[in-house]
Design brief:
It comes from Musa troglodytarum. This is FBOX. The chain is of the alpha/beta class. The chain contains six helices and 22 strands. It has helices at 12-21, 36-46, 62-67, 151-159, 177-186, 224-232, and strands spanning 3-6, 27-31, 52-60, 76-84, 90-94, 100-104, 110-114, 120-122, 130-134, 140-142, 166-168, 192-194, 213-217, 241-245, 252-256, 262-266, 273-277, 283-287, 294-298, 304-308, 315-319, 325-327. It has a 15-stranded parallel sheet. Strand 13 (213-217), helix 6 (224-232) and strand 14 form a beta-alpha-beta unit. It starts with a strand and ends in a 29-residue tail after the last strand.
């Protein structure tokens, strides 16, 4: 693979010379070039084996996207921090072989993508208000921080990709539970979901039977009832990883999930009670939950337990035969040399069954 890297001093004649010298180049990167569109069109028309094109900053008009058809071998296109060089403020990407498309922090009104082989699409931090996708093979979709994208557009985008396995809609402030429900019906194989900073979702009455990784950060509507719905229904029975961060209304977590392996609970200011049961639970992080006073954990797989900055912790019940390490740093009731009532030192690398 040959990579061409240009800066803002490069001229079109230099690019032409380099393309002639390396006609079999498969990857081109252009960063900080004033005439990025002219240079990249020269490269695309000269390099018949071009597979990867990476552009950073600049203005790109409709002519650039039309020229993509001159790159039949192109599989990866990544554009960041760019704007549309036309009055229509619309972008249409059509390519038969493209597998990976990233339009990150792209300043545009409307984006249309028609790529039958596309597997991964990221529109992260882009300013569009309208999206139209025709990507039947899409597996990974990132719409995070698309603040102008309405709930209906997010819903229709995801639902147009029935093979979707990973969806990131974090910081899309208008997303609702109804959207997640509709997506779950159309995308039954969805296994990774990031709905962080979505203040309108409670995650109740949502069915996601294949979900394995769920991230909920700064979700104001997530409550103990939300967690109870997760535990009691069949919707997340194969959930393996759960992140709850800065969910201010959450007061307790009680989960009995047979496949849960990792859980992270951080900055939950009203959180007072934790009850976890999973035979394969391997990693637990509980940090900066100032009101938390009771923890009960049952797991034969747990080896490391992190309980940092627990100011109110008074009860710690553990049934963890293979526990090897416990971090209670900055927890005033359990100093590093504190002996638990079972005779197990907090810093000791020995099994710990129960301590209160």
């Amino acid at each position: 693979m040959t990579t061409i890297v240009e800066d803002e001093e490069e001229e079109s004649t230099t690019v032409v010379a380099i393309c002639h010298r390396y006609p079999n180049a498969t990857e081109v990167k252009l960063r900080g070039t004033p005439n990025v569109e002219g240079l990249v069109i020269v490269a695309m028309t000269s390099l018949r084996h071009l597979e990867t094109l990476i552009l950073d900053k600049g203005r790109l008009s409709e002519a650039f996207f039309l020229a993509l058809t001159d790159c039949p071998a192109l599989t990866t296109l990544r554009i960041s921090d760019a704007s549309v060089g036309s009055s229509t403020l619309e972008v249409t990407v059509c390519h038969e072989r493209l597998h990976d498309l990233q339009l990150v922090k792209y300043r545009v009104l409307r984006i249309t993508v028609r790529c039958p082989q596309l597997q991964t699409l990221s529109l992260k931090r882009s300013s569009m208000a309208h999206v139209l996708l025709n990507c039947p093979q899409l597996r990974v979709l990132d719409l995070s921080s698309c603040h102008k994208l309405p709930d209906t557009a997010i819903r229709s985008s995801a639902m147009s990709c029935p093979l979707l396995t990973s969806l990131n809609m974090s910081s899309c402030l208008c997303v609702t539970d109804e959207t997640i429900r509709e997506i779950s019906f159309t995308c039954p194989n969805l296994c990774i979901l990031d709905a962080s900073n979505c203040p309108n979702i409670s995650f109740e009455s949502v069915t996601l039977p294949m979900l394995m990784d769920l991230r909920l950060e700064s979700c104001e509507a997530i409550t103990s009832a939300s967690v109870s719905a997760i535990s009691q229904s069949q919707m997340l029975k194969i959930l393996q990883s759960l992140e709850l961060y800065n969910c201010g209304m959450l007061t307790s977590v009680s989960l009995d999930l047979p496949h849960l392996q990792n859980i992270s609970l951080v900055y939950l200011r009203r959180f007072v009670d934790l009850n976890l049961r999973s035979p394969v639970l391997k990693q637990i992080k509980v940090s900066r939950c100032s009101a938390l006073h009771r923890i009960s954990i049952t797991s034969n797989a747990l080896q490391k337990l992190v309980l940092q900055k627990q100011e109110s912790l008074t009860t710690l019940l553990l049934q963890c035969q293979n526990l090897q390490e416990m971090d209670l740093s900055d927890s005033p009731k359990y100093g590093q040399n504190q002996q638990l009532h079972s005779g197990v030192s907090v810093a000791g690398l020995v099994p710990c069954y129960e301590c209160d």
